[in-house]
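Re: the request from the purification team.
They wanted to know what the chain is likely to look like in 3D before they choose a buffer screen. I agreed to run a prediction and write the result into the notebook, where they can find it.
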Amino acid sequence: MTTNDTVKNTESSASHAETGASAECSSQGIFLPIAILMLSVILVLSWNLYIAKSQSAIWQKQIIQREQMVIQARAIQAEFQKITQDLMSLSLTDTDAMAIAEKYQLRQTTNTAVSLPKL
């Protein structure tokens, strides 16, 4: 072997070593950005899940509050209808009650429900 052959063999083995090292670096260079990307995707999805659960809990509380408000409104409406029915029955004998019924245009139907004017 001549010195030229030895130099070529050394250069050849050095280029193979560089190719192996660059392949190893490129696989590590690809892994890190992908790992960071996956971590960020996991963080974003978990944050969205947390927000969705928080909103769901808030909506459930609002639904319960609105149901309670509807129950209260129906109770008040029933009380108001009782008072109005009493006023209508009283208006048959009392002139002041009749004046109030005429002022607010209250009418009693055959099924004893009192119809209220639409405002």
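For the purification team: The mean pLDDT is 81.
Please add any questions underneath this entry.
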